[in-house]
Amino acid sequence: MSRDIPETQKVVLIDGVGGYDVIKYEDYPVPLISDKELLIKNKYAGVNYIESYFRKGLYPCEKPYVLGREATGTVVAKGKDVNNFQIGDQVAYISNSTFAQYTKFPSEGTIMRLPKCTSDEKMKLYAAGLLQALTALSFTNEAYHVKKGDYILIYAAAGGVGLILNQLVKMKGAHAIAVASTDEKLETAKKYGAEYLINSSKEDVLARVLEITNGEGVDSCFDSIGKDTFETTLAALKRKGVFVSFGNASGLIPPLSITRLSPKNITLLRPQLYAYITDHEEWVYYTDKFVDLVDSKKLNIKIYKTYALKDYKVAAADIESRKTTGKLVLEIPQ
After folding, report:
1. 284: helix, coil or strand?
2. What is the reported pLDDT for 251?
3. Element holding 268 (H helix, E strand)
4. HSE (CB half, 13 Å, CA atoms) of 128?
5. 3-class DSSP state of 136
6. Is 0.85 topped by the overall pTM?
7. Angle formed at CA 8 by CA 4 and CA 11, multiple of 5 degrees
8. Which domains does the chain have, with CATH numbers?
9. Which residue stretches of the chain have pLDDT < 70?
10. Where would I find the Enoyl reductase (ER) domain in this sequence (predicted)?
11. Strand 70-78 vs strand 90-94: parallel, antiparallel, or unpaired?
12. Distance between CA atoms of 261 and 147, rounded to whole angstroms?
């Protein structure tokens, strides 16, 4: 490895299961790369709710576990068999272990080269939007193909994915019904394309959905909340409606009998982004769409706040408090 690359780096990791006390900011070895891998010096990393699932033990992982799911940065070393990237290339990528100064990653995978001399602002924007925008793009095209005139129920509508879903649903000529816990969040959702607003802390979500849809229910629901909203979502769907469940913010959905879907011929999906971008062609298709939408300003990525890497514990508390809107970003020390 180059003498310019240190042997140790600063990372954010968890060393156990529990509260914020298991989050540590400490020295950790810089990974060694194989002949087919890249070493990326990270600049920005996006904060995602999924990190809390690992910390709380909802998703198992070996400890210590370096957190992070996406980042932007610069290639600083490459294996001898790598031909598609050069040292100095700026990149955006989806990977584990991005809450770190350096991440190793295969040269073939969920990584894209950014235009030369991409600005710092754009690097931050791509880090903020990559994972969530690709999630929203693939879900609205494949989990449920949103069509003109559809009524779509969106939970956590002022969160990172929610704000993007609002915009994409509106672009497709459908009606976005936003659910959030405060009027302030709902106003943000409205600015980002939501047509109908439901305050879950003051209103009966199901009653409002039926009022908005003249008793029919919604064509589809994108539900990232999980246990607490499952029954409401099931009841809010119209005949032949599609239930897209993709998060566990309130806990795992208890086991259910599949026959409960029969009365209205409900389709229930539990999609994950990675299964939609497995093939290189799929990755290119969705990343090209993402870059085009962001660069043309048709899609706006709202950044709530940028935190220093060492302050991830604060960011984790903020995102889990349900007080944030849009995306939280970490700035990696250089």
Report:
1. helix
2. 83
3. strand 267-269
4. 26
5. helix
6. yes
7. 120
8. 8-130+277-331 (3.90.180.10), 149-270 (3.40.50.720)
9. 1-3
10. 18-330
11. antiparallel
12. 22
